[in-house]
Amino acid sequence: MAENLSYNTDVILVGAGIMSATLGVMLKELQPDIRIEIFERLDHAAAESSDAWNNAGTGHSAFCELNYTPELPDGSVKSDKAVKIAESFEVSRQFWSYLVKKNLLSDPESFIRSIPHMSFVHGAEDVEYLKKRYDALQKEHLFKRMEYSTDFDKLIEWMPLVMKGRDKSEKVAATFMPIGTDVNFGSLTRAMFNYLKTLDGVNIHFNSEVKRMRQKTNKDWRVIVRDLETRQKSKVRAPFVFIGAGGGSLTLLEKANIAEGEGFGGFPVSGQWLKCVNKEIIEQHAVKVYGKAGVGAPPMSVPHIDSRLINGEKALLFGPYAGFSTKFLKNGSYFDLTSSIQLDNILPMLSAGFKNIPLTKYLIDQVRQSPEDRLEALKEYMPTAKMEDWVLETAGQRVQVIKKGKDGGGVLEFGTEVVTKADGSIAALLGASPGASTSASIMLQLINTCFKDKVQTPEWQEKIKTMIPSYGIKLNENPQISDEIRKDTAKTLDLFN
Q: What per-residue confidence (pLDDT) applies to 4?
């Protein structure tokens, strides 16, 4: 066995996904001499949630995702979350545009392209809801380009594959947003890491698993890492640690043993896609069409039929179909769930399970689905679908965050949760949707929380505004600035505007 290593650095990033890549690039832009060590347990970057096959590939802007605009008991539609997510995605667009302008990313077409975003519903009740949603979003500037229609011929024009073979008497409606995007977060992540590894002071370690972490009396963290190939152990010390390990973040947060992490639990949800293997059919669909989630379904299980571009090839996917696995990661252990249960989170987890019986029933039903059942679900979005044109593919693994509520019980947190120690020395990212799409916004917030002194300096403020021109501005409330920024990022990223 090789001799154990011991060394110091400024920042430790755990996990080589989109979040760590974004934070690493931002910190190096803000402070070029900062030293960063990155540890990933798999043999390459973006192998879990960030990989193209493991996520929806949607640039989540709330253009088509109905779960971001819930219908309230009084019948009105709440749009504030949709606006917040749209704002956040605009931040990501600005950051990616900045990287392309500086030639830090060379080919925007390799990770982002324009594709219309659509919401599609059927049945009188859901048609009424979609109209109310459209009316609510029309009051918000970021959604002004959205169109709504119940006209059968118009819907054929927008999504011929979805309307083909459909009964004209069926009550249907759809919204159409021309400025949606398809994002290959795997390509984007790997491109950012390829840039990072060219920089002085940055080291990326693959096949490296974090085993323990502990905060020392001087507030620095000591992280024990094992090389899975050589079995060599390293002791790495740093004043700041970021845990961006996808479904594995919860387990690592528990290893950190910080008060802010107490009470958090996780409920794993696996996913599957139906992938089209008929090229003729693939060419007939050129939009992302999102529907309405079933009763009890988690947000990441909203059905959608998507045109994708993966590794340079056009693809057509439908799903995801939810399933249950005790793994927290696609490449994780079946003991992940049981080992995550501790005294501080057992009550919230049991409470959340009791309060969310519909979710449990939904997952059981999903697991029991036959190929015929999956085909029937697909036919709601493509009436002419045939079994022989589709194959089942395994998608990613997500961990639904459970946090302690005010009553001590458990609350399912369907968004993205950043848990930060009071002294700002360690932060962990938990949760799934909208995740990667809002990576730049989330990491900016983290920098503001964990690097408070430096972020207030004129140098850092100026640099942040260079990376994110809208920093400190609500784009939805500033139409002129919003339009200018959208036009600029569209030009740089070669997107429809």
A: 78
